[in-house]
Amino acid sequence: MTWIDTFKSLKSSEHRLAWMVAMAADAIQIVGFPLFAEGVASPADSVLDLAVGFVLVRLLGWHWAFLPSLGAELIPGLDLFPTWTAAVWYVTRQKMHSEEPEILPPVRQ
Q1: Which long-range CB contacts under 8 A does 24-27 form with residues at least 24 apart?
Q2: Neighbouring C-beta atoms of residue 25, cutoff 10 Å
Q3: Is the pLDDT of residue 5 over 70?
Q4: What are the boundaries of each domain within the chain?
């Protein structure tokens, strides 16, 4: 399954918006590397990460996958990896599979 198929398979507008927020935050951190290079010492990095974390929790609800992403964003240079996008992928992928109906084998009598 490609990324485009994953994005198209999202039924909820909250999930699609969370994807866009995460990808935009990661893109801003990669493109604006000089502003975010110091990790936790950068005020711009801290403000962006706290805002993104807050928005994602509001859109998707609390999930443990957001903690490693926030921790990784504090380490200088590691914010070049798209941690927010990876966390949103994990959370929405898990919710997509949990909503699928369980198919049971036929009962023989």
Answers
A1: 25/49, 25/52, 25/84, 26/82, 26/83, 26/84, 26/85
A2: 25
A3: no
A4: 13-96
